[in-house]
Amino acid sequence: xxxxxxxxxxxxxxxLNEASERxxxxxxxxxxxxxxxxxxxRLELQEKxxxxxxxxxxxxxxxxxxxxxxxxxGDIRDGEVDLATGAQAVDDAIRLADELVDAQLGATQxxxxxxSLRQQVESARAVLRRRQAVMDERERExxxxxxxxxxxxxxxxxxxxxxxxxxxxxxxxxxxxAAQLELDRLSRELAAIRDARTGAEAALxxxxxxxxxxxxxxxxxxxxxxxxxxxxxxxxxxxxxxSLEDRAREAERGCATARLRAGHAQAAYDAWQAQWRDAxxxxxLSANAVTLAAAEGxxxxxxxxxDAxxxxxxxxxxxxxxxxxxxxxxxxARRLAEALEPxxxxxxxxLEVARRLTIRVAAARExxxxxxxxxxxxxxxxxxVADAAAAVAGADARIQPLLQLxxxxxxxxxxxxxxxxxxxxxxxxxxxxxxxALVRDGDGLSQSAIEAEVAEQDxxxxxxxxxxxxxxxxxxxxxxxxxxxxxxxxxxxxxxxDGQANAxxxxxxxxxxxxxxxxxxxxYLEAATASRLLKWATDxxxxxxQGPMLRRAGEIFAGLTLGEFARLTVDTERTPPALYARRTxxxxxxxxxxxxxxxxxxxxxxxxxxxxxxxxxxxALPFVADDLFINFDDARAKAGLEALRDxxxxxxxxxxxxxxxxxxxxxxVFGAQVNVVGLHREAAAA
Length: 686
Hints:
Strand order of the largest sheet: 1-2-3
Oligomer: single chain
Strand content: under 5%
Largest sheet: 3 strands, antiparallel
Helix content: over 70%
């Protein structure tokens, strides 16, 4: 897809606009043709009906009748026919000629109307032919544009693609590119996750190997399960250790209490023994002379002391067992710490080590879940990669035959061919526009006839001829107004005549007025046609000469301004047309908005361009430059001298200046072939 030479969004928009414009132009031309067809049929039907309802005698019929009359009389006069035989034919011819003349005089208005209708029919027929030609041309342009798009689509590797659907295709193509970028990003993330997974798995396997858990054949899930089991066992052992330590502390507190009670009991017993001896002494009894009751009491007291001592030893035994379990748990935590984080051994706080191991297990679980998510993303990305690869392969298969057909090996090599095609289409459009203007403004004349008429005109005399034609048009208009007034007066006078002898005189004057109006109309048509031809010749001269001169002047002006301005343009929509200088950044400046030095550079560029255009067809004339660089700095003065140097290769250049600091620039630009002549004014005598 990236290798396809598809048109850009801007160019596609231009093609769509052009297609819409051409379709609209074809539809408009078709409507104009239909309107002209209806108008022609209407006028033709009107002429037919008028001719059927009015008996109109034409001048040709009158002349034919007179010719027959003169022929019949000539036969009698020459003796070819005797008088008795030819008299009747002569009388019939005379009567027919008189009747036709009388009918013509009585139907003059109808004849004029019929002639006007026939002229309108001819004009409508000419308009219809022009409209038909324009419609055919517009339809050919539309078909050519569609063929050009089909060729462009085929060249771009999307044969058969409709122009209207190309925008949606480009959007989908951009979506594929975005998906490819997302796939690359996910692939990189996947690679990072896989590396992290591999490292975590290796660390976990090493740690479990140190505690004699797991094997090399176990998978990651099995290792995580083993680690979780071990951590759960460690957590349970830590919980048991905490419980046993609590019980040991309680036992120590119970032992202390029992010792205290035993001490109290021993003290009580000693006191009792002393009391007993005192009592025996008081009783004058020997120590061995103890009664059974006294012995039982002493035995019971001894048993109580024994039981208290046993109760004191039981917590001590439980504390020893708890300490043994804690030692085993501490040994397991030490092995894990040595395998995972040896620096934890220095803390000595095995509860903290166990908590850290618990955190590591939780992180391992989260890593496993992330790996599962990454596996899902990998599967989705693999699907997108497969789709994108298939699309790329299809696009490459379509574009390679086009590149082979174009005789190039890459899309970059085909770009100049596309640019040449664009330039050819622009030139073809310019030619078609010129032909259309020729058909529209040529009054039905052929191109060779128009070129012959234009060649007969001297371009230098065009303004004078144009003014003369305008004056002639004004005179003809005045004459038409005067004749129209005379016609109104004649019609009023004709209406006032009651069949008297003056009717013939009035009719004769009316015929004279109509003849004068016809002459004036012919003069008006000739003047209008001459004006149209002169205007067309003037516009053609401007199109042929102004464009190359402005282009060359723009190139010279760009050099004189050191690239600050790019070219010159003319706004023909204004009256009179205005000249603009377009900056390199794209903004346009009117001549009045330029600085004085820039205006001098512009006028110099126009002078040089006009002279170069004249030198192409006429004898060379010297170019006199009188202190042109007054408002120029050294860099722009050097650029101006370089322009004069280029001009000096075609004609003589005379450069006058009174600034001595320009001489080094002149010698630097022109070299040794420059001829410097110093002009010194002699001091006037005192």
